[in-house]
Amino acid sequence: MIGSAFLVGLCGQGIKVTNDALVQSKIKDEYRGRVFAFYDITVNAGIVTGAIGAALLLPDNGVTSILPITIAVIYLFAALLLMKKSKFSAAATN
Questions:
Q1: How far is 82 from 67, CA to CA, in rounded Å?
Q2: What is the pLDDT of residues 9-43, one digit of tens each?
Q3: In a designed cystine with 32, which of 11, 27, 64, 76 is the match (CB 3.0 to 4.6 A)?
Q4: Which sequence ranges are marked TM in the entry (predicted)?
Q5: Diameter over CA atoms, the chain
Q6: Which tens digits make up the pLDDT trace of 35-68?
Q7: Nearest-CA neighbor of 36 among 47, 20, 48?
């Protein structure tokens, strides 16, 4: 459980750094501060909400198999949804 939490955290921070750079590079100067502030608050609220959810859902000893499997399945469906060919063809035409 600790190993999977470490890897998810590591990957999540890598994604956040990449998204921070994208937000800062793609938003016009006059909106950048407001958009980045909203984005950063949303990400941080998601992290805190996830921690609260884990505290409420996990057993006291922290040993469970259903929650990591459920999260892995959700990640798999999200990856499959994002990898649809139509998503890439729409991005290429813009």
A1: 22
A2: 899 888 889 988 888 888 898 999 899 899 989 98
A3: 27
A4: 36-57, 63-83
A5: 51
A6: 989 998 998 999 899 889 888 888 888 788 888 8
A7: 20
